[in-house]
Specification:
It is a single chain. This protein has about 270 residues and is an alpha/beta fold. It is about 40% helix and about 15% strand. The chain has eleven helices and eight strands. An eight-stranded parallel barrel has the order 1-2-3-4-5-6-7-8, surrounded by six helices. Helix 1 runs parallel beside helix 2, helix 1 packs parallel to helix 11 and helix 6 packs across helix 8. It is globular.
């Protein structure tokens, strides 16, 4: 059985003192949990503080983004080795909020600002390769917009994104990384993909990996669901056979809700 993961993406939230308080509360309550993988992804400025708090627990540290160069004149960017140096083991790559046309929200995403920072399928691929080369585990995000779903293009979009993200990787590398299916229309909106539909799309992703790299990497790889995951709906999602955990935004910003996600996931997988 694949070990599930609950990863908290704090996005641009929490001051240093707030990050310290949240990390401490999470570590005290679920830090000893061993049968669910737990990852905290705070803003860059809080990585070292959060890392020091969770050190010695079973919670791991992740970055929210990475650049593919080791160093240089890249103002505002963070390299893979910088993330490793503060204790990161994971890094999110290709989140919908980082994809698309720079500074221009998708026209069908009036409920939130998504696809703002210019990441493309190509840049997601080189970021994933750079992360792996540095010893980081990338959490590669994919997912369709509302417009693409309404056009019936969900499967096409996720297959294209996954294939492009994994281009040039070995089967061994693919086995080690994580994919997160995050339908863009469900991120931060309160809308959640129905359990069976999320399971179906993640099955499409797993089939795509199998077609590219054979069945072993596809079977071993963990694929998460993301998009308004919260304590009220996590049980149904985690009961799906293809879903191996959640990449969580808003519900990771409160210790109680994040810990509930971990505890519910643990209960489901202990059956």
């Amino acid at each position: 059985m694949r070990k599930p993961i609950i990863a908290g993406n704090w996005k641009m939230n929490k001051t240093l003192s707030e990050a310290r308080e949240l990390a401490q509360a999470v570590a005290e309550r679920v830090g000893s949990v061993s049968d669910v993988g737990m990852i905290l992804c705070p803003p860059f400025v809080a990585l070292e503080v959060v890392g020091s708090i969770i050190d010695g627990s079973n919670i791991e540290l992740g970055g929210q983004n990475v650049y593919w160069r080791e160093s240089g004149a890249y103002t505002g960017e963070v390299s893979p080795t910088m993330l490793v140096s503060v204790g990161c083991r994971y890094v999110i790559v290709g989140h919908s909020e980082r994809r698309g046309r720079f500074g221009v929200p998708e026209p069908d995403m009036t409920e939130g600002l998504h696809r703002l920072f210019g990441d493309s399928d190509e840049s997601v691929n080189v970021k994933a390769k750079a992360a792996l080369a540095a010893g980081l585990i990338p959490i590669i995000c994919c997912g369709e917009t509302l417009q693409e779903r309404q056009a019936g293009d969900t499967d096409l979009i996720v297959r294209e994104q996954v294939s492009a993200a994994l281009e040039g990787l070995s089967a061994e590398q693919v086995t080690s990384l994580v994919i997160a299916y995050e339908p863009v229309w469900a991120i931060g909106t309160g809308e959640t993909c129905q359990d069976d539909e999320a399971n179906r799309v993640i099955g499409v992703i797993r089939l795509t990996v199998a077609e590219l790299f054979d069945t072993d990497p596809a079977t071993s790889m963990r694929i998460l669901y993301g998009g308004s995951v919260k304590p009220e709906n996590v049980k149904g999602l985690m009961e799906q056979l293809e879903i191996d955990g959640g990449l969580v935004g808003g519900a990771s910003l409160e210790a109680d809700s994040f810990c509930q996600l971990v505890e519910t996931t643990q209960a489901v997988y202990q059956r």
